[in-house]
Write a structure and sequence with these properties.
single chain; seven-stranded mixed sheet; 11 helices; alpha/beta; 2-enoyl-CoA Hydratase, Chain A, domain 1; 16% strand; globular; 44% helix
Length: 259
Amino acid sequence: MSASSNISTKLEDGILSIYMDRPDKKNALTADMYTAMVEALQELDSTPEARVGFITGSKECFTAGNDLADFLQRPPSKGEEPPVFRFLKTLPKVEKPLVAAVNGPAIGIGVTMLLHCDLVYAATDSKLQMPFASLGACPEAGSALLLPQTMGYQRAAQLLMLSDFFTAEEGKQWGLINDVFSPDVYQAKAYEQAKRLSLQPANSLRVTKMLMKKAQKEVLEEIMELEMDYFGKMLKSPEAKEAINAFMEKRKPDFTQFN
């Protein structure tokens, strides 16, 4: 097992498991963690013995999303591509199957990364949310395209515009999650499915995944570039500053002062 920046990996049974392990911060992702996640995904595709990727969190949580304090302390420099953007660009390019096991809070990128996983399993205690609009930002990870495709425009609009929480069972009904299990077995059940994939012909899985995604590859890249462009600009907006200040001051933000 290798570990770096609260991200650890383990190769066993033909499965490269990627663990987000920062439980004291609900696995909130820092720049270093995003870098380690990118390296893990690249390791998955470049290691012949790794046939399937398996992404999960710690016992209490999948991930609370981006670590806001880390971002404020280390904002992107001019001309620099933030590690989170490198992670977002890497996800859709992974050639091998990805299985996710979700539990507890799954916020922001903790939800949108699931749109790039091939199989998603969740615990009944999962609580999912995409609060981008509430933070003065916009969708990311291609969710502006993939979420309406997955669950329909109106439902996606409700989740992306109102930042509503939803349950694992709702995620299953809406097509985001394959199945839901109790918190004590969800990870084992998801791993079982990863093991089933690892026994399938590896090239067949790679080609099948490529063919399923090929039709929208170009439009997805275009949407993701547009999302990242807007996201970077909107983080400097008065609305985003108000959202961040309100978060830090533990108060409700007031967006009525902005048009």
